[in-house]
Amino acid sequence: MNREKSFNIIRTLFSMVAAILVAFIIIVMVSKNPFESIQIFLLKPLTSKRYIGNIIEAAIPLIFSGLSISLLFRTGLFNLGGEGVFYFSGIIGSILAIWLKLPPILLPLACFTASAIAGTAVMLVPGILRAKYNANEMVTSLMMNSIVLGIGSYILNNILRDPSVANLVSYKYNSDALLPVILKGTRVHAGFLIALLCAALVYVYIYKTRSGYEIRVTGTNPKFAQYSGINVTKVIIMVHVLAGAIAGVGGMVECLGLHRRFEWTGLPGYGFDGCMIAMLANNNPFGVVGASLFVGYLRVGADLVNRSADVPTEMIAILQSLIILLISAEKLLKKYRQRWIEKDVKEVNHEVAS
User: Which stretches are transmembrane (predicted)?
Assistant: First the structure.
C-alpha cells in the first residue's frame, strides 16, 4: 500500500473517531446520566442479535447507494440522482410486485430488472446532458429528482394506492415477490447477500476490466484520458448506466426486503447518504460495505440512546455532517500528508541511487 492510500485511510479513521468524540461531548452536554448514555450508544447495538440485525438492515440500502455514488465519484462526477432513482425504481418495481404472476424466484428477479431499467433511464438524462452538452450533472440530477418524485407520486396516488387503507400506500405486494429473511430473530433479508454480490462485482469491474481502468483514468485526468484515446463521452454515459442500475436495484431491494407495500410518500434520503458512504470508503467497493455498517451502527446506537436515555436522535445528523466536513476538507492533516509523500520520494530516490 502506497503512502497516498495510507494517508486517505488515516484521515478517514481520524474523521470517524472525531465524530464519535463529538457524540460524547453532545451526550455529556444534554444527558443527565452521560456515562450511562455513552455506554448505551457505544455498546448496546452489539449486545443482541436483534440489534446487530438492525445494523445490517440499516446498512443494506446504504451499500447500494454508496456503490452507485462511488462509481460516479470515480469518474470525477458529482451526481445526486440516486435520491430520485431509489424512489422511482421502487415505484416501477412495485407495479410488477403487485400484479405480475410469476414463481417465487422469477418474480423478484423481474422486479429487480424493471427497477434497474427505471434507474438507468433516470440516470441517463443527466449523464447524456453532461457527456454531450457539458451540463452540470449536480444541477440536472437534482432537477430529475423533483421530476421523478412528481411522476412517482402521480402513479402512487392514481394507480397503486390501496383505497382500503387510510394512509397513502400501495396495494400489498405478491408474497412471492418478497425477499426471505436469512437470519432468524432479525429482519435481515436476502438483500444483504445481493448487496455483497454487487460490491464484489463492482470491485472486479473497477480494478480488473478495461472499462474500469478507463473510468479511473477519466476521473483522475479527463484531458489525459481523451488524449490517450479513451472515449470520455462513452465512459460518462456508461458510468451513469451502471450507477442508475445499482441504485435502482437497491430501491427495489429495500421495498421487497422490509416492506409489504410501497410506503414512500417522498424521497427516502438514501441518495444523499450514498455520498457520505462513498467518501468514507474512498470510493472502494468493499470499503462501501464497511462504511455502511459503521453508519448503520451509529444510527442504531443513536436510536437506542434516544429510547433508553435522554439524548435526541438529531445527534446522528450532526455526526454525519461532521464526518463529511472532515473527510472533504482538503487541508485536514495536509502537512502530515506532505511529509509522508516527501519521505516516500526520498526512499525511492535512495533505492535508485543504491
Answer: 12-31, 51-73, 80-99, 105-129, 141-160, 188-206, 235-253
Does the pLDDT at position 210 exceed 70?
yes
Taken in order 76, 80, 83, 85, the sign of the CA dihedral is: negative
- State how far the Cα of 28 lies from the Cα of 110, in Å rounded to an integer: 50
Both ends of the chain: CA-CA distance in Å? Answer: 23
Integer Cα distance of 42 and 336 in angstroms: 30
pLDDT tier at 137, thresholds 50, 70, 90: very high
- pTM for the structure as a whole: 0.89
Q: Which stretches of the chain are DSSP H helices?
A: 3-30, 34-43, 49-74, 82-99, 106-133, 137-155, 191-208, 210-220, 222-227, 232-258, 270-280, 285-308, 315-328, 334-353
Across 60-74, 125-139, 335-349, least confident range: 335-349
Tell me which DSSP letter residue 122 carries: H
* Torsion over CA: 109, 265, 157, 82 (sign): negative
- The residue-averaged pLDDT of 313-323 equals 74
| Beta bridge partners of residue 170, listed in sequence order | 161
**80 or 89: which leads in pLDDT:** 89
Where do the domains of the chain lie? 57-296
Those residues with Cβ within 8 angstroms of residue 59's Cβ, 6 or more apart along the chain or in another chain:
192, 195, 289, 292, 293, 295, 296
